[in-house]
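During the reporting period, our protein records have gained a structure token line. One record among many is quoted in full directly below:
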Amino acid sequence: MRTLALRGGARVAVVAAEWYDAFGVVTRGRVQLELRDGEPGPVLGRDAGFWLRGTGVRALRNPGRRTATVRIVTPGSGRHLPLDTPPTPITEERRNDMNSMNDTGVAAGPAAGRTSHPRRLRGLAVTGLIATLAAMVATTLAAALAQAVGVDFEVFDSGESIPLSGFAVVTGFFSVVGVVIAVALLRWSTRPARRFVWTAVSLTVVSLVPPFLAGAAPATTAALLGLHLVPAAVVIPALAWSLGSRTD
């Protein structure tokens, strides 16, 4: 018997010879299986038991920040399984079903924390919708407050000010773009939360350039910069948290 420790974000390749007839039990944290085509597989929680023989799983990954540990029982260390984590038997029908799902072949108890892909997407979409609405409200209120203290939001010397509805529409549009990016990363990335934060922060920085080119008064420019940061402060943490919670 041995214990495999995975630091936060660490990845360990699965060597077939080492996992032949081996039984693993997650004793701390969560471990995600990486499928042979590179897709993120099931996330196994504490006390989840699993076999990897013949599954095609190519790596174990810790999607969280804290160290995760896996107790590995091999034939050389005793054929018995841990008494506190009885595995769920795999029937032939169940095995066929699992082989049709990218050959993951995982047998885990109810604590495995496995979530279907459509359900994860729906949860992320709901979080994104709520965050978008919250960002629209927060940005519109901030713009109204700026107007109340004398900011006119006149740009390009046009003589017309940006209406409050304009802030709401633009905020909603770009927030939805952020949700789409988050959904795409959840679907195709093995580290969606980290990559989303990096992408969203980079796009936010780029969005701070146009206010300097709008030919507006200094107070207006400063207000526009702040109004770019308000929705980012609402949407980015919400989506990053949702992505992390659905892959941890």
